[in-house]
Amino acid sequence: MRITRLVPWLVRSSASFWGQFLFVEVRTDEGVTGWGEITSTTRTANRSVARMLREVEGLVAGEDPAAIELVWHKLFRAFTYAGSRGAACTVASAVDIALWDIRGKVLGVPVADLLGGPVRRELSLYTHPDQSRFATAEGVEEEIGRIVGAGYGAIKFDPFPHAEDVPEANDRYLDGRLSRSDEHRAIELSQQIRAAAGPDVELLVDAHGRFDVPTAIRLANHLHEAVDLHWFEEPVPPESYHALRQVRERTQVPISVGERLHTRWDFVPVLERELADFVMPDVTWTGGISELKKIASMAEAHYVPVSPHDAAGPVNLVAGAHVMATTPNFYRLESSSYDLATYNELLEVPLAAVDGRLPLPTGPGLGLAFDTDYLSANVVDGFGGTD
Fold first, then answer.
1. Where does the Mandelate racemase/muconate lactonizing enzyme C-terminal domain lie (predicted)?
2. 212 near 236, Cβ under 8 Å?
3. Nearest partner of 97 among 123, 121, 75, judged by Cα
4. Structural domains of the chain, with CATH
5. Residue 138 CB: number of other CB atoms within 10 A?
6. Which residues are catalytic?
7. What whole-number distance in Å separates Cα of residue 158 and Cα of residue 190?
């Protein structure tokens, strides 16, 4: 069996917070195909990475899809001088996931069985509220009530006012500060969420790496005092381990980082310098199933829990689930929506959470089957189908 094509599928979907998903289909000469995902947080990034997938097809065409480690290194090392992190790493991630999917289909077993076998058959999830419903206290109570009523034991949210005049502001570092009035608004919203969720639900705050060191310290401590946080995520921009160390040393709240770290090498200093209580690699950005498994094993050696990030679609969720099913030091798996049925417009085999947990798919490979008619009808900019 040989790889013949890498087909990027950039598709519109109401299930995506960003309005679209970016998948990759790896095709073979024997008709077995595998699916990966790269979905990023901006449409510019999605289109750019889709074009990169077209460019790297020649690197892997003709390779044995079972040679997963070889293909990973070919893709990763091809960008050594241009930069092997970031977009280049996401390309390797998507192809890697698709190759594991193919391997499972060829052997007739789920991916988790290829990674040492499951230590659990259900994956605890945490999820996000729709914060557009937070205009009133009643809206907060209703939205949080829906999530808790669906069985979720942990909720993540960003309580900080965004710079509304800056596009995609939560991905940007501005001056690193937050006014006292905006801090009070964040605390008030967090208290409303705590009241609606009750004392037993774990609250996770995501700062999106927007703050400088003194601001992050102040916010982490004040929010933790107000609502008893389970973690404070990405308090400072991910470029500086020194900044992260300062926040860690001067706060009491557990720290979570990792969605914007790429490969095991980025996680080495986090673990060795004891800079975080939780690590949260994203399987579609950090290097795929192969790399997530390695990072999880590194974290296990340091007794640090792993909680994969997910701001994307069903491949991200399910690929992370197969790895975490085999990972002893697993905390929870992130889900972009508490209602996984929103993904089912894309799929032939539906996904569903049960009491805030995802049953591990039992079909061969990832256990996903895409509705390619739906994908073809929603292709963006010609990326997909017979491309």
1. 137-254
2. yes
3. 75
4. 3-108+370-377 (3.30.390.10), 113-359 (3.20.20.120)
5. 10
6. 208, 309
7. 9
| 86: Cβ contacts below 8 Å, ≥ 6 apart | 262
If one counts every other C-beta atom within 10 angstroms of the C-beta of residue 83, the result is 10
The tokens for 236 are 């400072």
Q: In the structure encoding, which two tokens stand for residue 76, read together?
A: 């990763």
DSSP reduced 3-state for 127: strand
CA-closest candidate to residue 317, choices 127, 156, 160, 139: 127
Helix or strand (DSSP H, E) at 124: strand 122-127
Residue with tokens 């557009």: 132
DSSP letter at 223 equals H
Query: H helices of the chain, where?
Result: 43-60, 68-77, 87-107, 111-114, 137-149, 180-197, 213-227, 241-249, 263-272, 288-301, 314-324, 372-377
Helix (H, G, I), strand (E, B) or coil at 284: coil
DSSP secondary structure code for residue 354 in this structure: B
The 3-class SS string of 159-201 reads: CCCCCCCCCCHHHCCCCCCCCHHHHHHHHHHHHHHHHHHCCCC
Residue 317 carries which side chain, given as an amino acid letter?
A: L
pLDDT digits (tens, 9 = 90+) for 202-256: 999 999 999 999 999 999 999 999 999 999 999 999 999 999 999 999 999 999 9
Alpha-carbon span 240 to 229, nearest angstrom: 23
Q: Give 115-129 pLDDT, tens digit per residue.
A: 999 999 999 999 999
